[in-house]
Amino acid sequence: LIAIYRKGDMTLDHLMAFTVSDSHKAQEKVWRELPDWAKRRGDGEPVRAALTEQHIAADSKLAKFVGIEAYEKAGGAVLRDLFAEEGEGWLTDSALLNRLVTEKLEAAAEPARSEGWKWVELVPVQDHTIDHGRIHATYGEPTEAQKAEIDALQTEADAIMEEHGEEPQDEAAYDRLAALQEKIGDISDANEVWSDEQKAIAGVMVTIAHDGSVIVQRGIVKPEDKGAMKKLAKGAGQGGNADDAEAPAKPKGGLPASLIAELTSHKTVAAQLVMAETPDVALLAVTH
218 has which bridge partners? Predict the structure, then answer.
């Protein structure tokens, strides 16, 4: 590989990427099988991706959720190349990572298990092709202590907006305003009221956001219970609000139109990124 680099048939980025593995056979196999377009790219990402395809990136949502420190403390290994920056790398023990994910999700789901819901499920990766319904809680009046806390937080938020505007350019002011608004929302959400009728047809889904934070979604209705959800919505006073709208129309392919729109958006962004990194292809596209 070094001889190939010295001849000018490989870039320095390619050579640096090979340091993620210490197996000479694996390195040479990847270079032999690397397609010409990947070699022409010049950067080392295709090489790095091929050498780590069986591992999980440290910036994946599962890795963020568990935390690299917790994963390593449990005995997991992290693969890093010689030039990796802090926070970069690949987790090599997927079985261990999945076990830690399940344990942490189970802890997050524990409060909901005693609330009387029809079901509580751990869903690390959501299947967006399943057309779930959703019912909503009503909200009780905040206590006097909560009202006082909300008033104090809102007064501080108003002062920040008066000085910096509703969208502060000052980073510290922006972060503080966001934190205040989130705290006010958390206090309000603490007064959610769910009826027994709602809990009898709905459940709780515990999943992971893209940033690695946990999301506990109450009031999720499975497709087979949507009929009961509509009956509940029609029965005024039987436990709050429900989404009574029809499910998104599905095209012949079987996917909801909203999902197709979201996937198309991601595809467009991905195409833009690839185009930006391959000026020869971009030139041909523009010319065409």
Answer: 204
d(CA 101, CA 268): 31
Alpha-carbon dihedral sign for residues 235, 238, 240, 243: negative
pLDDT in tens, 199-222: 999 999 999 888 888 888 899 999
**The dihedral formed by the CA atoms of 91, 55, 125 and 179, expressed in degrees to the nearest 10:** 40
Task: Give me 111's structure tokens.
Answer: 């409060």
CA 197, CA 200: separation in Å to the nearest integer? 5
pLDDT tens for 112-166 read 999 999 999 998 877 777 788 888 888 777 788 888 888 898 899 899 888 888 7
- The 10 Å CB-count burial string (b at 16+, else e) for 35-46 is eeebeebeebeb
What lies within 8 Å, CB to CB, of 92 at 6+ separation is 54, 55, 76, 77, 78, 79
Q: DSSP label at 138?
A: E
Give me the phi and psi of 87, to 5 degrees please: 95, -10
Beta strands 192-193 and 138-139 are antiparallel
Name the residue among 217, 209, 206, 193 with its Cα closest to residue 109. 206
